[in-house]
Amino acid sequence: MSLIKKLLLSVFSGLLLSYAWPVDGFYLLIFIAWIPLLFVESKLKQTGKTQLAFFGYSFIAMLLWNILTTWWIKNASFGGAMMAIIANSILMAAVLYFFHFVKVRKGSNYGYMALIAFWMTFEYIHLRWDITWPWLSLGNVFANEIEIIQWYEYTGVFGGTLWVLIVNILLFQILQKKAEGIEVKQLAIGVISILTFPVLISLLIFSTYKEKVNPLNVVAVQPNIDPYNEKFNGLSSSEQLSKLLKITDGKLDQKTDFLVGPETALVDYIWEDKMANAEDLKMLHALLINYPNLNILIGASTLKVFMPNETVSSTARKFGNSQEYYDSFNTALQLDNTGNIQTYHKSKLVPGVEKMPWPAVFKYIERFAIDLGGISGSLGMQEEREAFFTPNKKFAAGPIVCYESVYGEYVGEYVNKGANFLAIITNDGWWGDTPGYKQHLNYGRLRAIETRRSIVRSANTGISAIINQKGEIEQASKWWKEVAIKATINVNNELTFYTRFGDYLGLFAIFISMAIFVNLMLKKLKLIL
Q1: 429, pLDDT greater than 80
Q2: Coil, helix or strand for 440?
């Protein structure tokens, strides 16, 4: 195979991956997207030696995929987008090169097992380390096709990743065997079964799943404040809050249980030990007087002072030259008529924007973090997820802040803490009218299926929405519109299999990956001895 053909096949894989992706992609392309790249690898393997060139071909495919699906990051920061896209492409190409390495040394069957295990291990790690960016986890590709992935309540997104990789590998083997004149009937039947069985199971679940009637009355607000020109350097915090509350006129009533506002709706920093003095919170408490049953869940920027006997976090900073420390948070607050204020600190922080990776090592370059209007640098976080309970304990919200909604097991931790519905509060205005905010919305639909929790989504702008327990969008706002969505959702107190056990498929992949590396090391040791 010529160099040009290998390059074209690599590009073709990148294009197929990209045009399978939501929101406008044709998802069935994902089941053949890896095949051109597998043909390239197969030709290189015929030399009998590991070919570093496969890393290059893989990088081309992965780079194209990353650019065409996440190019919109540039609207927030062109330099940040370049770094994120290139780094992610290198990591993906490295995973594929390790697959090639194993396949050359251990044969095709062992190699394809390694491809599945290594890729799923990569996705598992990419959900958890400091340079986390799981936007392109393969199972996310079905975010618009919720009718065929209802079984995510058992497997999470990793089930989709496994499905995609197995089908691609088997279809590639069919094409390869067909070219060699080998009978492929049984293999073809196997592929058809693997493709259709999950779909049939999902359609059955989708048609029979019924939400238990346990109503909660909610209002989700989209104030539509320009994040670049108004939110942090135009309108004052009180002006923004007044605008938000005005939008709710006619929507709130005595039966409303929750008013949900977006991420950083309260932009003036609030000291957590002096919340009673915060003017924005006084405005919200004044609203609560008129609605005794109302709970307000809203985003804020908060600060915490460390007491002398407290352990200072790695993200804390000093007050000038004093020995006192404080930390800054992207926070969700819940207020009610008891005067109690519940707080949750966003803990899945955006690398390079809200968090400098490995702060203990790179704290000295924190000042280079991308500034998105006041919420930048390394913010503080909290170790445990938290549910916000109403005073009567009947309802409990999982306060998911923005980027956190992309993490399946992480969201499940809110549910395990007692959340019987989910509230996603986000901004989504940084990216402009691009696929970014639409993809973000649809990834939330996956969380609804995995946890079987209704979702109330409040965005500063973008898409605010009501999502039911099957992942269906029941109401949705338009881009760049002021709106308040009024709805009745059902809460659910039952735990799904996935919520109980999390990303167990990813853990199993790590176990297989480790076994493969141990096997290779033992083989090498025997050769040395």
Answers
A1: yes
A2: helix
